[in-house]
Design a protein that fits this description.
The chain has about 400 residues and is mainly beta. The protein has helices at about 120-125, 375, and strands spanning about 1-5, 10-15, 30-35, 55-65, 70-75, 85, 110-115, 150-155, 160-165, 170-175, 180-185, 200, 205, 225-230, 245, 260-265, 270-275, 285-290, 290-295, 305, 310-315, 320-325, 330-335, 335-340, 385-390, 390-395. It has a domain at about 1-225: Neuraminidase, CATH 2.120.10. InterPro entries: 6-blade_b-propeller_TolB-like, Glc/Sorbosone_DH, Quinoprot_gluc/sorb_DH_b-prop.
C-alpha cells in the first residue's frame, strides 16, 4: 500500500483468484490496483491508521497466466508524482512465453501511470489501456501504438520490492528475484532493459522450455545488476534464495550506515549493504553484513546459523520487507516481528560519528546526514537492531 499526500487517498494492489486453480489457465488470476480514501481529515493525513472499506475507483485490472510472480510494489515518484507499478513475469519456470522481453506485454515490467488525469472511456479503449489512468507523455514507448505505453522499464522476473533514494530521487532501486543462480538489485532508468530471460543477473540464462521463442543477446542492450549475490553465498541449510529489496539509509540513528543501500534474503537470515563507489559512478560495492540485537530488546534473541561463514546471527525468521518512516529510520518486517535500525552503541559497537544519546537510546535524534561521511564509513562491521514496544531493532 502506498499513500499520496496531501490528499486523503490510499492506494492498494492485490491479486485476485478466479475459479479453480490448475496453475496454467489464461487469466486465472487478476492483478488489481484500487484507490481508497483514508479515515482522516485532509489536514492530518499522516495520522491515518485505516482506510474506508468502499473502493473509490478501480485504477488497473489485468488477467494473469500463472500462479506466481504477480504484481509487486506500488510507489509514487518523488519528483513527478506518477504511479510506478512493478509487475512480475507471470510465473512458470523460466518465463516460457518470454513475456519479460515482449514490449506488447506488461508482464515483467515496471509501469509508470498518471492516475490524476484519467482519460475518457473512449480514449482508454482506443489506447487499449487496462484501467482508469493516462500515459505520461515522456514514457519511453508512449508514441508507439504497437507497444504498451505504460512501460517504463522491462526485462524483470519478479521485481516485488523497490524504492527511491530519498536524498537522490533519480536513484530508483529494484530488487529482482532470480531463478536458479542469482539475486539482483537494479538501478532503474527510463526504457532500460534488465535482461531477463536472456540473462539471469550477469549470467546467460538457458530456458528449459521456450514455446514463446527466445530473445537473442545481440538484440538487447541489457543493463546488468548494480548489486546482488549468488545463491551459493547464502545459508546452504536453507537451499533457496529470494531477494528482498530495501532502502538507501538516510537516517541519523546510525551515521555509519548513512548512504548505504540495505537489502536481504527472504529465507537465509542474511543482509547486505551496498555503497556507490566512487559517488555518481554507477559502480557499487556490496558487503554481507552481520547484525546483532540491542541490549534493550525486550524480546529474547534466538541465535541461528547465519549466511556466509556460518556466524551466529539473531533469527528474525523470514525477512519479508523493509520500510522507511518520515524520520528516515529503516524498519525490517520479518516473520518474528518488526525491527528497527538503532544506535550502534546499544549493541556494543563503535561508530566514530555517533553522537551521545539524549534519552534512553530508543529514540533516534533528528534526521540528517552525519557531519563527516569519511569518518562514518564502516564496511563489513556488524549492524545493530533493538525492539521497542512492538518494534525489534537491529544494528548493522
Amino acid at each position: 500500500m502506498a499513500g499520496k499526500c496531501p490528499r486523503t487517498r490510499v492506494w492498494w494492489h492485490s491479486t485476485v483468484r478466479r475459479g479453480t486453480d490448475n496453475g496454467a489457465q489464461p487469466c486465472q488470476y487478476q492483478v488489481v490496483v484500487s484507490e481508497y480514501s483514508a479515515k482522516v481529515s485532509s489536514s492530518n493525513v499522516s495520522a491515518a491508521t485505516s482506510a474506508n472499506p468502499s473502493e473509490v475507483s478501480r485504477i488497473f485490472t489485468m488477467g494473469l497466466p500463472y500462479t506466481a510472480h504477480h504484481a509487486g510494489q506500488i510507489l509514487f515518484g518523488p519528483t513527478d508524482g506518477y504511479l510506478y507499478f512493478m509487475m512480475g513475469d507471470g510465473g512458470n519456470k523460466g518465463d516460457p512465453f518470454n513475456f519479460s522481453q515482449n514490449k506488447k506485454s506488461l508482464l515483467g515490467k515496471i509501469m509508470r501511470l498518471d492516475v490524476d488525469n484519467v482519460q475518457s472511456q473512449k480514449q482508454i479503449g482506443n489506447q487499449t489501456l487496462w484501467g482508469n489512468y493516462s500515459i505520461p507523455k515522456d514514457n519511453p514507448f508512449a508514441q508507439d501504438s504497437d507497444l504498451q505505453p505504460e512501460i517504463w522499464a522491462l526485462g524483470f522476473r519478479n521485481p516485488w520490492r523497490c524504492s527511491f533514494d530519498s536524498e537522490r530521487p533519480s536513484y530508483f532501486y529494484c530488487a529482482d528475484v532470480g531463478q536458479d543462480a542469482y539475486e539482483e538489485v537494479d538501478l532503474i532508468s527510463k526504457g532500460g532493459n534488465y535482461g531477463w530471460r536472456a540473462y539471469e543477473g550477469p549470467y546467460i540464462y538457458h530456458p528449459e522450455w521456450t514455446p514463446g521463442g527466445n530473445t537473442s543477446l545481440s538484440s538487447i542492450n541489457a543493463i546488468f545488476p548494480a548489486m546482488g549475490y549468488n545463491h551459493s553465498t547464502v545459508n546452504k541449510n536453507v537451499g533457496s534464495a529470494s531477494i528482498t529489496g530495501g532502502y538507501v539509509y538516510r537516517g541519523s540513528t546510525d551515521p555509519c550506515l548513512y548512504g548505504r543501500y540495505i537489502y536481504a534474503d527472504l529465507y537465509a537470515s542474511a543482509m547486505w549493504t551496498g555503497l556507490e563507489t566512487p559517488p555518481s559512478s554507477g559502480n557499487y560495492t556490496s558487503t554481507l553484513t552481520p547484525f546483532s540485537c540491542s541490549k534493550n530488546s525486550p524480546i529474547p534473541c534466538e541465535s541461528a546459523g547465519g549466511a556466509g561463514a556460518g556466524a551466529a546471527l539473531p533469527s528474525l525468521g523470514y525477512i519479508f520487507s523493509f520500510g522507511e518512516d518520515n524520520r528516515k529510520d529503516v524498519f525490517v518486517l520479518a516473520s518474528k516481528g518488526v525491527y528497527r535500525v538503532v544506535r550502534p552503541s546499544l549493541c556494543g559497537y563503535t561508530c566514530a560519528a555517533e553522537k551521545p544519546a539524549t534519552d534512553n537510546g530508543t529514540s533516534p535524534p533528528p534526521s540528517g546526514p552525519p557531519s563527516s561521511l569519511a569518518s562514518a564509513t564502516r564496511v563489513g562491521t556488524p549492524m545493530a537492531v533493538a525492539l521497542a514496544s512492538v518494534v525489534y531493532a537491529l544494528y548493522f
